[in-house]
Amino acid sequence: xxSQVAIIGAGPSGLLLAHLLQxxxxxxxxxxxxxxxxxxxxxxxxxxxxxxxDLMDRIGLGARMHREGLVHEGTNxxxxxxxxxxxxxxxxxxxxxxxxxxxxxxxDLFDAAEDRQLKIVFGAEDxxxxxxxxxxxxxWRSGGEAHRLDCDFxxxxxxxxxxxxxxxxxxxxxxxxxxxxxxxxxxLAEVPPAAHELIYCNHERGFALASMRSQTRSRYYIQCRLDxxxxxxxxxxxxxxxxxxxGDKAAAGVVRGPSFExxxxxxxxxxxxxxxxxxxxxxxxxxxIVPPTGAKGLNLAVSDVIFLSEAIEEFYRERSTAGIDHYxxxxxxxxxxxxxxxxxxTGLTHRFPDTGAIERRLQVAELDYIRESKAAQTVLxxxxxxxxx
Length: 389
Ligand code: FAD
Ligand code: DHB
Hints:
By secondary structure, the protein is of the alpha+beta class. It has a domain at 5-46 and 100-176 and 268-346: 3-Layer(bba) Sandwich (FAD/NAD(P)-binding domain). The chain has helices at residues 12-23, 36-41, 50-58, 63-68, 88-91, 102-115, 235-251, 297-318, 322-349, 357-372, 374-384; strands at 5-8, 28-31, 47-48, 70-72, 75-79, 82-86, 97-99, 119-121, 125-130, 137-142, 145-150, 153-156, 174-189, 199-202, 208-212, 218-224, 259-273, 276-277, 280-282, 288-289. α1 packs parallel to α6 (102-115), α1 packs parallel to α8 and α10 (357-372) packs across α11 (374-384). The protein binds flavin-adenine dinucleotide (FAD) and 3,4-dihydroxybenzoic acid. 3,4-dihydroxybenzoic acid binds at residues 45-47, 198, 211, 219, 292-293, 295. It is an enzyme of class 1 (oxidoreductase). Its EC number is 1.14.13.2. InterPro entries: FAD-bd, FAD/NAD-bd_sf, HB_mOase, RIFMO-like. Residues 3-342 form the FAD-binding domain.
């Protein structure tokens, strides 16, 4: 088998790239080792920056998102029972974010992939990349048979645990990493959200976040210990802890109900650079992870695939390697700023094992400063809605 591009992974990066390349007339095959139900069923991101909204429109898949998604013009920060609002729209000259779950994005991408006959191989086992400095090829097994795909380029869109990053020699790839000493316990419940915008909460007992998927479905997170187990957290314990952390005012809006999803996610800052080696390009979580506090992960996948599709399109249209040569530097410039923001926002809102009396007072001072300073709020707002691409 042959195609111009082999895409490893059918998560947001891989499928968005596949749609963009098809639109540009570039032939691609996506190799995904799980099935559609698994990829679509993972409860992950909830907040789309304007660039992600624009991309869904550009590939002709924005209709349901505009109908069902919730446009948020502001977000709230709570601490010590106090709450203040960051008016993102006013502070950024009109930018907003869209609350539309990653599961919905994936459903739209998969439905359209069927209609448009994108080539996706599900259940691809033991995917291996060969001769990535070119001419490259990919091998895998499915249905008990061995397969081979020859291509011009490989897009490694296979997430943090994928195989692509490992195909770059160790002496070329540089890793930067911080693993945070806590996790996020997330709950989904079929109850109306606590407020009509998100609430990021710093509390002595740890971070809490009130988010949502729709007017009738809430998504909540609380900071938890890394050794906590889901079984330790009954719904009742979760709701009690959430309400304590949110404080009386925000907790008054919490509607309790049975959870239908509960999971613990570790937090990590990670960047692997460069994002290109020979004919192999990394995109999305395969190259970088942010702690989820700033809602940046999926949005970084979006900017990566925009840059990468432009570079590949330019190569076939003009036979120029300028875009390809610049891809890693261009993507990383945006990645590092989002890494910085996510790291900063995590530090501001979480309780660390070494958060002593002075660190706590400094956090509270910074939160007070943000509440009082339009300049500080503008910095937060312009990062939250997403820096330009
Ligand atoms: P992935 O989603 O990891 O997809 C990779 C795909 O590759 C998967 O389908 C996997 O099955 C496949 N794959 C892996 N290995 C192989 C292999 N060897 N062969 C073939 N296929 C393979 N981001 C935001 O922007 N906003 C948020 O609000 C937000 N909240 C989050 C909350 C949580 C709890 C979590 C965990 C994440 C959150 N994120 C958020 C991050 C976001 O979900 C990820 O950044 C995003 O999924 C990255 O997409 P990706 O396609 O690069 O990687
Ligand atoms: C959600 C996740 C985030 O990490 C975040 O910052 C905001 C919202 C969510 O899943 O709804």
